Amino acid sequence: xxxxxIALALGGFGIGLTEFVIMGLLPEVAADFQxxxxxxxxxxxxxxxxxxxxxxxxxxxxxxxxxKPVLAVxxxxxxxxxxxxxxxxxxxxxxxxxxxxxxxxxxxxxxxxVVAASMVAPTKKAGAIAIMFTGLTAANVLGVPxxxxxxxxxxxxxxFWAITAxxxxxxxxxxxxxxxxxxxxxxxxxxxxxxxxxxxxxxxxLSILVTILGYGGMxxxxxxIAFTLTEVTGFxxxxxxxxxxxxxxxxxxxxxxxxxxxxxxxxxxxxxxLSALVVVLVVFALTAGNQPMxxxxxxxxxxxGFATVPGLQMRVMKYATTAPTLASGANIGAFNVGNALGAxxxxxxxxxxxxxxxxxxxxxxxxxxxxxxxxxxxxAAKRHDAAGITSEAEADDANAxxxxxxxxxxxx
Length: 412
Known about the structure:
Elements: H1 4-20, H2 22-33, H3 37-40, H4 42-62, H5 67-87, H6 91-118, H7 125-154, H8 156-177, H9 186-189, H10 191-197, H11 202-223, H12 225-233, H13 240-264, H14 266-286, H15 291-320, H16 324-351, H17 358-386, H18 392-411
């Protein structure tokens, strides 16, 4: 395993921590800034929206630069955002700090996935991406519970100081351990115009849609899981953090296994994982009143839900061919769109009075749609492969190469 992947994973750990730890510290933050918990909740929503913006606009702005320095600059941006959050004297500055950190989130994972894949053999690309995302899963397993406990014991600002320090360590690791990977995609793809050409591929759009629906279904069930565990299953509120660790263990296992499986066959891995996720969500909804079954469902929900992540990221990069950076960033944004979709649908069902298992049913429905799209995408890809065409973008590249060759012959 290239040691540079560890530096990328550490950066992913810090980013995952700053995204999710705020959920457990909202009461303290709200009290400190004297705002309602609903207003404090915008620190989560605002972050998610800024991730989408950064994943698209910031990634597009840096595609022509060398990727290693770009990753370092993004980590500096992340450090600055968390430092602002740690010292923020009021709610507005806290929100600004969250937005600054979030802008780095999407671009870091989008570009980092391309860098991680470039550090290994072609047959191990999805596994390398999974290693980078291991930092994100570790943030859920260990970082969020201990970050919450630190914030509750020493004040919420101490958690953001700790995240800032993690960012500094990740920055040092990136500078020291990540190899230079060339000047972005400029030479291969023709700069930003070439990057945008990747979106002419229908498979890129289908992959992004599967990301939104598949990940959104899991997150829709997870967003309101504390209410399900306490109001339906009957667990005490003090038990919830430990149950969330079980969910995080599932994330870790699913990410690792899903990455290795996707290296063998991306589409088959996604079809199996999404099918299993639909089944898990349905069983969870039906047995949420049973504590042992709920514990098993929590682990499996995290496992099959995150088993899709390396494959989804790899699939977008595959069909973007020579211009994967912006498409990769867009897919990171798609994960956050899925988060928002799932949370919104779950909230709609609860508001409608359908109970605290209704977000799980909503998640199952959203995931089922994602599975249907994936079935269509896999079938279309199989037909194209049989015809000798990997993707529309690749066909464009082949045509462009042919035109250049013809021009050279004429010049000769």
